[in-house]
Amino acid sequence: MHFNAYGGNAALLAAALSNLDDRCDTLVVEALLAEHRVARAQLTDHQLELLLAWRIRLWEVFAAATTQERVAVVNRLLADAAARPYVSTHDGQPPHLHYADENADVVTRVRAVTAAGLALVLTETDPCRLGRCAAPGCRAVFVDVSRNGRREYCSRQCATRVHVSAHRTRMRRR
């Protein structure tokens, strides 16, 4: 499944931030932001703390049990991010949406774009595309970009672990 640049990439960024470890450092987060095409992604220690706090709030969207709960969480994120969309044509690019001022600090821009990206996935696709890994003990989240939208695991590793465990259990029962 293909998402538009802001909805899909921003939602993927939200999932990637949500999956960060509490102990990650500035370089890891800066690399992640650069990978998701966040401009001027250099972070101070304080900005790192703010983004690590934001990631917990993003995780709540994926972990919500119902669409109504997801909508409520995303609406709180949008309100707190104060996302104000506008059309930009910077750097010779065709018209596209921005959700925070291009000159705003990195935390403001990341908060706005991730909140808006999750909102776009909720409204433009199936809300179930925002998922949490079904493997026992795994807290990772993901955006399901598969064709059929039936992804259950964050990675092949988790899927394999669950399937091997189920297979071994069946073999022991025989």
> Which secondary-structure class do the elements indicate?
mainly alpha
> Main β-sheet: number of strands, strand sense, barrel status?
2 strands, antiparallel
Provide a count of the helices.
6
Extract low-pLDDT stretches.
Answer: none
Order of helices and strands: HHHHEEHEEH
Estimated radius of gyration: 18 Å
Distance between the termini: 41 Å
How many beta-strand segments? 4
Q: Mean of residue pLDDT?
A: 91
Strand order of the largest sheet: 1-2
Percent helix: 40-55%
Strand content: 5-15%
Shape verdict? globular
Q: What would you say this structure looks like, in words?
A:
This protein has 174 residues and is mainly α. It contains six helices and four strands, in the order ααααββαββα. The strands form two sheets. Strands 1-2 form a two-stranded antiparallel ribbon. The chain has a two-stranded antiparallel ribbon with strand order 3-4. A hairpin with a 7-residue loop joins strand 1 (86-88) and strand 2. The N and C termini lie far apart (41 Å).
Observed structural traits:
two-stranded antiparallel ribbon; mainly alpha; 174 residues; two-stranded antiparallel sheet; 6 helices
How are the elements arranged and paired?
Elements: H1 5-18, H2 26-35, H3 45-63, H4 67-81, E1 86-88, E2 96-98, H5 106-124, E3 130-132, E4 141-143, H6 156-173
Antiparallel strand pairs: 1-2, 3-4
Helix pairs in contact: 1-3, 1-5, 3-4, 3-5, 4-5
TL;DR?
This protein is mainly alpha-helical and 174 residues long. The chain has helices at 5-18, 26-35, 45-63, 67-81, 106-124, 156-173; strands at residues 86-88, 96-98, 130-132, 141-143.
